Structure formats: structure tokens, C-alpha cells
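Q: Make up one entry.
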Amino acid sequence: MITKETQALVDEGIMLPLMEDFYTIQGEGFFKGTAAYFIRIGGCDVGCHWCDVKESWDAGVHPPTHIGEMVEKAAASSDTVVITGGEPLTWDMTLLTKSLRDKGCKTHIETSGAYKLTGDWDWVCLSPKKIKLPTDEVYVAANELKVIVFNKHDLKFAEEQAAKVSENCILYLQPEWSNREKMIPLIIDYVMKNPKWKVSLQTHKYLNIP
């Protein structure tokens, strides 16, 4: 049971429900293949049925952790820190990103964009979901748009989302892992016909790393 005092610290972004943090290789999108420190924050109500980290959804099972502890561990491992979830924008990211930047770290976020964009980011990876669409400000801030393709209808959704981001935003189609054998040929064909898009794969799963 979280005390009122602890909850107040969580609400302010001084403490956050930490699911896990680890140093690894970025497996997806523009920075794939590069070393980065990941901080996975618990809590998400977007509820994608194919989510591969459903254990992150319930923030209550992940202990509120002081951001100072997270920052010290991250900065000791890498100058690039990726905040992911869950849905990290469920919480106020202002103090976490400030603390990371004060340590000289670059701040990246992976988000559905469903909530207010807080924090100061060097890179915003927007992965929109039909269930709960991004806010206008996240569309504008996105450096890359990563649409997960579970079926062919997701390609139409991808185009709808691409129309909302800036012209400098990099566009990715990524097959949903459990359905990748069916979706990869579809995506390849689509990208060849629509070369503004790029293919993103979950290379960390092929490499068998976190």
C-alpha cells in the first residue's frame, strides 16, 4: 500500500513506478544497433491486445523509486537513456529528464503519445495506437513514427498517422512480433511501393537480448 506521502512524490515525478532498468542494444527504429540504457516505467491503460510487456500495465505492482537512483545507474552506463513503458507519459517526466540532462545524458522516449508530453527530449519515438490516439503536441514533437502492423488494415492507420506528423519525421512500419511471418512480406511490398516508409524490425529479439 502506497502512503499518501509517497503518492505525492509520484504525482510530482520525484518518484516513479519502476518496472525494470537495464543496459542493452536498442533494437528498433532509427537508433537500432546502438548501446543505450533503458528505464521501463510501469503503468499503461492503452491496453493493446498484442502488447509484449503486459506486466507493465499495473503501476501498483512496480515499486515507486526515486528518480535520483534511476539517473545514477543510467548515467554510469550510457550517455543515451531511453524511457519506455508501459506508457511513460502517464507520469510527469519533467524532473527525470532534467536530472538525466544534468548528468550529460541524451533523453529518448518511446510513447503511444496518448497523454500530455512532459519532459525535455532529444528524441521522440511515437508509436500510436488506435485505442487511444496521440495528442496534437506529440505529433508535432515526434522524430520518428513507428506503426505496429498486426494486419493489413494497420497500413491505412499508418497513413492516417503519417499525415499528422511533421515532414521531417522518419516513418517506420514494424511487424507485430507474433504475426511477423505474415506481415513482413506485406510490409516489404508496401515500402517498395511507398518509399517514404522504412521497415523496422525488433532486432533485439533476433539477437536474443532484452
Summary: Residues 4-206 form a domain with the TIM Barrel fold (CATH 3.20.20.70). The helical segments are 4-12, 67-75, 94-102, 136-141, 153-162, 180-193, 203-206. The mean pLDDT is 96.
